[in-house]
TrEMBL record:
Subcellular location: Cytoplasm; Nucleus
InterPro entries: ARM-like, ARM-type_fold, Exportin-1/Importin-b-like, XPO6
SUPFAM superfamilies: ARM repeat (SSF48371)
Stated name of the protein: Exportin-6
Gene3D superfamilies from the UniProt entry: Leucine-rich Repeat Variant
Taxonomic path: Eukaryota, Metazoa, Ecdysozoa, Arthropoda, Hexapoda
Pfam families in UniProt: Xpo1 (PF08389)
CC terms in the record's Gene Ontology section: cytoplasm; nucleus
The species this protein was found in: Sipha flava
Domain of life of the organism encoding this protein: Eukaryota
Ranges where the Exportin-1/Importin-beta-like domain occurs: 108-240
Gene Ontology biological process terms from the UniProt entry: protein export from nucleus
Length: 973
């Protein structure tokens, strides 16, 4: 580069510095920025613009320009690399590497990282042929104490990019990269080991330790450890796992990766794995020795617990033989109950759970470790008796509070131990009796609440839940005694002596509510034991409990938790009364009348409890024997109307009550339909009016969704009792709702679901409606399939067509009295044009990348074949068999939907089995002829080796997988 060139480059550099400063100036207008952007784009199109970029990197300190230059280089490397000369490629490579080496202390870290990424991107395509010194560059940096961190960054990024490259690399190139990289691993590992051994002598040892272990942790995700994790390297790494810093977490991640994989045991492998197992327990001992485990970082505890889980699950036999007295389980026991963080504690409980699962085939261990397992129960019991500070008010997505999760996980462990030693269930009852007797004493003498904190009642909630979880281990007499006690306390605690309504401390009130609601909930689990108990029935205990529950649900002053528990218990108490309705009619009518006539609104109850009460009330109305059908219809009509006081706005509650009260016998469904028919007619009328309206406001759409959902669920529930006239109106209404299809995706899906239901259940003779539905479905679906567009509505459209084929098969293949259903002579086809179009759009769907649509339609045609012998129909064989098999084979060759390989192979087998001779002698040879990018000698090989006429399913599927794999490999070569 002569002086004249330098002047030109210098002026250019300063010019672009000014332009970029102006571009990023907050005061610059959008117009100015747009003009500048055009200039920047032009620069990237210039020949040898990379030379100016290299000059900029060497001479500028303007970060805008430096990043601009790197971005231009990145564009050249990724998009124009093949268009520049080899000499230019080499010069640019060396320039970037030299910038890294010379200026890594001057540039910001993110810029150095970007430069490293540029060189690795070049290497992904050019190494080793056109970039032979790439590994030398890395080794050179690693061997220089001042540049070792750069070398480690290079190596880490190379491991990530070479072993798991993006999909823009061909399979052959991916394989080449891995093979070539593996050749250099021994030398690189030797260097890395030396770096680790000498890192303590450097001023930045912590950074070096962290970076080296990070490289190792990445590499051991894909490297076979038996070749590269030597005993010498293991001894270097082990001390690094005890520091509780990032280096320790990287190191333990390496060990976790090694331990998690499966190996064929050899002496070397056995030595390393056994050393790691013992090392894991030394880590546990170190953690336990810390006075307060809370001082150990959560991230460190998490990785240690993960390793511990792997060791115990996979290497039980080694541990069992090495620790003669079960010391490893003693350590696990101590470690489990030292955790402050609940997630780590739960991880430990999961380990215990996996132990109990594995012990099913190790009876000798069950007896050997009895003492430890019983200690575990004692420690868990103590843990759940001190659960007081855990949140029990905020519910997660699964409807559980943190407290409920805590109790359930602990109780599950006790249940696991009880499976091994059923005798432990008895002490649970004994403890529960102590706690429950304390509570009974306070119920009888409320003044004792002053000393409530000193009572054993505090343990009653977890103890009752534990007792219930172990109910299967008790004799019937004990179960009945427990249930009677729960029943008496439930009645007394809510009706006679509601302790939680007395003026006591807020924390005491909260505990009392928890206790009483737990007793009510537990009783719902035990109540079935008393349904056939004569003594219980003679004493009218069921009536007493029913009265208490209903009265409590009507009482707006009762706490929500009590209401909810009463709502759970109510159905289990009421069901036997409804079975023997004649004995209880007057009591049920007397107590439920406020709910039936609307004098109690139930607004004070939450949604789930409200539903329980209303379902119970509806079941009584439907079961009540004292009314004639006409009167029952009127009464029920009024009751159903009260469930939807705001008309169509309240349809959800009405639907939920009707659905949850079932199943119904035919005569009852007829009564329900007559009662709900006015509401159904109103709903259909609303849809018609909305369809004819010129406005499409969102609130109207929400209302339409509610109405369609209601009609859908009512049709599914009552379709066999609906009048033909109403069904006809309903059919036509949904077909005519075309104007609303583009307004709401959810609305469209709901409408299609209803049409599918109607097709499924409607009269077999209604051919006109079937034709209209097919026309509607195809009109909506064909444009989407043709444009390869698969919005959420497509799944529902395909389901509609599937329902047409499955439930209206005779529309296409009319039955003949003289022929059996699956006779091969049954090949006369009606409405062939519609049948053809449906199968064509299904066939097109097999070429989509949308796996959900592909899976749905593959399952659909398989079900149609099972039900109606689709593949054997002459029409299908003539027009579709070869096309379908070709498309499905292409999917297997292209690995478009690998996760469905078995299902695809099975479908091809079922199609081929229609005529195996045709499949092997005609179809497969023709398929190979039409396959591009395969040489004739390869086709000959595939015909001879992979197209053997095998009809047995397992061998057929293996051969098919080998065939498609060979075709794929042949095309790549």
């Amino acid at each position: 580069m002569n002086n004249q060139d330098i002047v030109v480059y210098e002026n250019e550099m300063k010019n672009y510095e000014m332009m970029l400063n102006e571009f990023y100036d907050q005061n610059s207008s959008n117009t100015v920025k747009l003009c500048l952007q055009k200039e920047f784009d032009k620069f990237g199109e210039r020949d040898k613009c990379w030379v100016q970029c290299c000059y900029n990197l060497e001479n500028s300190k303007n970060q805008y320009l430096l990043m601009f230059s790197l971005n231009i280089m990145e564009m050249i490397i990724n998009k124009k690399w093949e268009k520049i000369t080899f000499k230019s490629q080499e010069t640019l490579r060396e320039a970037i590497f030299n910038h890294i080496v010379m200026k890594h202390n001057e540039y910001p870290k993110f810029m150095i990282s970007k430069m490293i990424k540029l060189l690795v991107d070049i290497a992904r395509n050019d190494w080793p042929l056109r970039y032979p010194n790439f590994i030398e560059h890395i080794a050179r940096l690693l061997l220089n104490p001042e540049q070792v961190l750069l070398g480690l960054s290079f190596l880490l990024l190379s491991s990530e990019e070479f072993i798991s490259p993006k999909e823009d690399l061909l399979g052959k190139r991916k394989h080449e990269l891995k093979v070539n990289f593996l050749k250099h691993i021994p030398k690189l590992f030797e260097i890395l080991s030396e770096i680790l051994k000498n890192a303590h002598k450097t001023s930045n040892s912590d950074e070096i330790y962290e970076a080296v272990t990070k490289v190792f942790s990445d590499m051991f995700t894909w490297l076979p450890f038996e070749k590269h994790l030597t005993p010498d390297l293991l001894q270097v790494l082990m001390p690094l796992g005890k520091k509780e810093d990032a280096t320790a977490i990287n190191t333990l991640t390496i060990f976790n990766e090694v331990l998690s994989k499966s190996y064929t045991q050899t002496d070397d492998k056995y030595f390393i794995l056994s050393e790691l197992c013992l090392y894991t327990f030394r880590l546990i001992e170190n953690i336990i020795s810390v006075p307060e485990i809370g001082f150990v970082s959560e991230a460190y505890l998490t990785i240690v617990t993960e390793i511990l889980s792997v060791v115990i699950r996979k290497y039980w036999n080694f541990l069992d033989s090495h620790f003669n007295n079960g010391e490893f389980l003693e350590l696990l026991l101590q470690y489990t109950f030292r955790h402050v963080v609940l997630d780590c504690y739960y991880q430990c409980l999961d380990i215990w759970g996996s132990i109990f699962e594995a012990l099913s085939d190790r009876p000798e261990c069950v007896e050997k470790y009895r003492r430890i397992f019983l200690d575990l129960v004692e420690r868990v019991t103590h843990k759940i008796n001190t659960f007081g500070n855990i949140n029990d008010e905020i519910y997660d997505d699964d409807g559980q509070t943190e407290c409920q999760i805590f109790l359930n996980k602990n109780i599950e462990i006790i249940s696991n131990v009880a499976n091994l030693y059923p005798a432990i269930a008895v002490p649970v009852v004994d403890n529960w009796k102590v706690y429950i007797n304390d509570y009974i004493t306070i119920l009888n003498s409320p003044m004792l609440l002053e000393n409530f904190k000193d009572s054993k009642c505090m343990f009653l909630v977890p103890s009752t839940r534990t007792l219930t979880s172990l109910s299967g281990y008790y004799e019937d007499s004990m179960k009945i005694a427990i249930t009677k006690m729960l029943n008496d306390i439930a009645i007394q605690g809510v009706a006679t002596t509601p302790l939680y309504q007395l003026p006591v401390a807020l924390s005491t009130t909260k505990t009392l509510i928890q206790i009483q609601s737990e007793i009510l909930t537990a009783l719902s689990r035990w109540m079935h034991l008393l349904n056939n108990n004569k003594q219980f029935c003679l004493e009218q205990n069921r009536e007493k409990l029913f009265s208490v529950l209903v009265t409590s649900l009507q009482d707006t002053s009762q706490p929500t938790q009590i209401h909810d528990a009463c709502g759970v218990l109510l159905p289990t108490v009421t069901e036997p009364m409804l079975i023997h309705i004649s004995e209880y009619t007057s009591l049920l009518e007397q107590l439920l009348s406020p709910f039936l006539d609307g004098s109690i609104t139930l607004n004070h109850l939450n949604k789930k409890t409200r539903l329980s009460v209303r379902v119970t009330s509806l079941k009584f109305l439907l079961t009540c024997p004292s009314q004639e059908e006409e009167i029952k219809v009127l009464v029920l009509m009024n009751y159903l109307k009260s469930l939807a006081p705001s008309g169509l706005n309240d349809l959800k509650m009405l639907t939920d009550v009707l659905v949850n009260s079932g199943p119904y016998k035919m005569s009852t469904r007829r009564i329900i339909y007559r009662s709900v028919e006015p509401c159904l007619i109103e709903a259909v009328t609303h849809l018609k009016n909305d369809m004819q309206s010129e406005t499409s406001l969102n609130p109207q759409m929400e209302m339409c969704e509610r109405v369609i959902t209601f009609l859908s669920e009512m049709y599914e529930l009552l379709h066999d009792t609906m009048s033909p006239q109403f069904v006809q109106v309903l059919m036509q209404t949904f077909v005519d709702l075309d104007l609303m299809w583009s307004v709401s995706t959810m609305l469209t899906i709901k409408m299609l679901d209803v049409l599918s239901l109607i097709i499924k259940h409607s009269s077999k003779s209604n051919k006109e409606f079937t034709s209209v539905v097919i026309k509607l479905g195809l009109e909506k679906l064909i444009p989407l399939v043709a444009s390869n567009c698969y919005p959420p509505t497509v799944s529902a459209l395909f389901n509609l067509l599937y329902c047409v084929l499955m439930y209206k098969w005779r529309y296409f293949f009319p039955a003949s009295p003289s022929l059996t259903m699956h006779s091969n002579n049954e090949n006369n086809i009606d409405n062939s044009e519609q049948f053809t179009t449906i199968l064509e759009v299904i066939g097109y769907s097999f070429m989509t990348n949308d796996i959900s649509i592909f899976s749905q339609n593959l399952k659909a045609i398989e079900e149609l074949n099972t039900k109606w012998n689709l593949y054997a129909k002459e029409y299908f064989k003539h027009y579709f068999l070869s096309k379908y098999m070709t498309v499905l084979l292409n999917v297997m060759v292209n690995k478009s939907h690998t996760i469905l390989s078995d299902e695809i192979s099975m479908a091809i087998y079922n199609m081929a089995s229609v005529d195996f001779d045709y499949f092997f002698s005609k179809f497969l040879p023709d398929y190979l002829k039409q396959t591009d990018n395969i040489r004739n000698d390869q086709r000959q090989f595939l015909r001879q080796k992979r197209m053997l006429p095998v009809k047995e399913l397992p061998t057929f599927m293996v051969n098919l997988a080998q065939l498609t794999n060979d075709i794929r490999c042949s095309k790549q070569i």
